[in-house]
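Regression test case RT-17, inverse folding.

Input:
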């Protein structure tokens, strides 16, 4: 049985259906849930409404209203196929109502994701966390410094939060494997594109020196995309914001002046996170 965040089965189903509805992004997802709560409407009632009512009362675009109306048969079918594909893998849809939702994201993100998909061991988020960020164009020396920082912090018992597809993130991600330590990896695409159809592909080729398959008992992958979709527009910036938001310590090895990483580092410092600068602004 697929293990989604602890809540009623009906709520699980409706949340997944809303998430998979065309043109219902994070903002609309949150708005629908909040509007239903304020108006005393059960979420499942949305699926019994007509497309006209969904457009008029909830300001949904026509394609979304038609997909949800009168039972949402097409979206239900997609949700059923997704659950079948996931099987018994430890995948959880985590909404902002869930006790598993990281409150640090609500405090840090300008627009916190309405939902996240967790795959693996969510208990690692209870550990002290850190990240190492670097703008693109990091030198070999700077990447080596990333590795040294990650090794030092890992040996202190802290858990790395990282992304998956920049040289600095890739350098960071393989270091905990040498010590059998857990990692939190934030991906900017759906789980299946990131980890393969069986959710077993190791994210980093260099990690195959230590293991060939992703280990959900040790690590946690977090995606803000629908599991069966690819990368989204603006995905790398959202990924970086979540990486920093989940981290109690932020180590900045290279910051390009005016770049996204520089802005995130400044916000982290403003919000009271421990910021360690390992290099001057470029």
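Golden output:
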């Amino acid at each position: 049985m697929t293990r989604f965040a602890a809540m009623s089965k009906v709520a699980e189903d409706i949340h997944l259906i809303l998430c998979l509805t065309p043109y219902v992004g994070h903002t609309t997802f949150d708005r629908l849930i909040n509007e239903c709560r304020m108006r005393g409407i059960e979420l499942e009632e949305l699926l019994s409404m007509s497309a006209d009512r969904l457009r008029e009362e909830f300001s949904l675009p026509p394609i979304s209203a038609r997909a949800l109306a009168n039972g949402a048969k097409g979206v239900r079918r997609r949700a059923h196929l997704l659950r079948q594909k996931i099987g018994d893998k430890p995948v959880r849809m985590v909404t902002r109502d869930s006790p598993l939702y990281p409150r640090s994201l609500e405090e840090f993100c300008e627009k916190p994701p309405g939902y996240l998909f967790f795959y693996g061991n969510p208990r690692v988020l209870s550990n002290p966390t850190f990240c190492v960020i670097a703008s693109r164009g990091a030198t070999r020396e700077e990447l080596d410094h990333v590795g040294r920082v990650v090794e030092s912090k890992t040996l202190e018992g802290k858990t790395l939060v990282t992304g998956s597809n920049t040289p600095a993130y890739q350098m960071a991600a393989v270091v905990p494997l040498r010590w059998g330590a857990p990692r939190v990896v934030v991906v900017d695409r759906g789980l299946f594109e990131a980890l393969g159809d069986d959710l077993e592909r190791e994210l980093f080729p260099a990690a195959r020196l230590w293991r060939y398959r992703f280990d959900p008992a040790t690590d946690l992958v977090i995606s803000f995309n629908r599991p069966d979709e690819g990368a989204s527009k603006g995905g790398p910036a959202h990924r970086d914001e979540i990486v920093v938001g989940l981290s109690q310590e932020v180590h900045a090895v290279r910051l390009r002046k005016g770049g996204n990483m520089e802005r995130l580092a400044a916000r982290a410092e403003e919000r009271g996170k421990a910021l360690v600068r390992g290099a001057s602004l470029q």
